[in-house]
TrEMBL record:
Protein name (record): Cupin domain-containing protein
Species this chain originates from: Sulfitobacter guttiformis
Domain Cupin type-2: start-end pairs: 20-74
Coiled-coil regions listed in the entry: none
Pfam families in alphabetical order: Cupin_2
Superkingdom assignment: Bacteria
Annotated spans, Disordered: 1-35
Amino acid sequence: MTREEFEDTARREGYDDPKLVRFDPSSRSETHSHDKVSFVYVVEGEFILNTDGGAPRHGPGETCILPKNVNHAEEAGPDGATILVARK
């Protein structure tokens, strides 16, 4: 998926405007949850979404959806990660 396709899909499906988020190399957030569904697009780097269900790795051009109220930790690969995240 291209960035433009992601933004069009997010708009069409009622998500908020996407926000650009950058992660430092090999960083990992504290475990937390959100009260909205998160639609994520990887712009660059490697983005790992750690949940009780696993830790899938996503690369540039890939997307993932994180349901609301799911405990997770965002992690970046060795070169960091830049993502777009839209929520609803």
